[in-house]
Amino acid sequence: MSTLQWRKSSFSSGDAANCVELAADPTGTPHLRESDDPEVVIATTPAALRALLRAAKAGEFDRMI
Which residues form the DUF397 domain (predicted)? Predict the structure, then answer.
């Protein structure tokens, strides 16, 4: 996983360790991690990632607390 090129969310602030990072491996499989725990990596499918992003943009997670 160390060879992946990680990109931080555009919503992250500076060098804070509280953001989501995304990378794709050579086969196109997306990987997600939180910057405060970079050893924990989740691999998913492009379709599942699209569904997650669509739900987040629609506010489906805004009232989970």
Answer: 4-57
